[in-house]
Amino acid sequence: MTGDDDGTPRPGGGALLVVGDVITDVVARHRGPLAPGTDTSAAIRTVPGGAGANVACWASLRGGCEVRLLGRVGSDAAAWHERELARSGVLPLLVVDPLASTGTVICLVDGGSAAERTFLTDSGASLRLDAGDWSPELLDGVGWLHLSGYLFFSAPSRTFVAAAMDSARARGVPVSVDPASAGFLADLGVDRFLALADGVDALLPSRDEACLLTGLPDPADAAGKLSRQAGLVVVKQGADGALIARSGEVRARVPAAPADPVDTTGAGDAFTGTFLAALLSGAGAEDAVAEGCLAGARAVERVGGRPDG
Fold it and tell me: In order of start, what are the domains of the chain with their CATH numbers?
């Protein structure tokens, strides 16, 4: 890996390998408050999801590099997820778990103007990746490794993270991490997460995650602090765009693209996948972040976390 004049990590070409969760999403869009103890009218769809899988699909849509996805699923939905990933142009490298079913997330989406969502998560097989599922040969032909933060939230997958990061460092393959969930981060512990992610080439938190990881209320201050530990920090702020920080300070603020939100599920994944594919195609950080913002705007205008293609 090299760097250019703006400090952006520069992979030497090759594929993007995403490792993370492959999930079945049940998206329920309701308008107005939920009615406890009785019925609430909703539009319900079952779609393929998972932060890792979504990132891979958006990266593939952006183009410019081969995209591979390593994840763990149950036999109940393995064939469906493999077909859906391949249909999006992603090379699926799915481990079929003999004991656990595919993870499922129920996404409750408020049909109001903000399209805010609440997740009910059964991670299932997705957090059962372990060191035995990793091989250094998975990095053959790979120019960038991206790890979903959900991998940090279970003991088996933390052993996987350690093995994958060691292999990437040995080969000079840059590594990025998306912290993934403020709630799970709080349960794991900030210090523990930061120790596990120490030295990554790019850290891509949301505003809430950045503030939680630093204890600072201002996202710009949080971005600066985090960038003393990671080579490049990009803080995703939704409708407020994104911040780019390096070496302890914010270097750029990129505005969001306009959007009419329908479902905010997967907006951060759209940003991340597009951003990483742009970097692998030779874009500088600011241009790659601008592309990520455009993809995030596109994502919130449709139901589910994947692109239409």
Answer: 16-21+49-99+128-300 (3.40.1190.20)
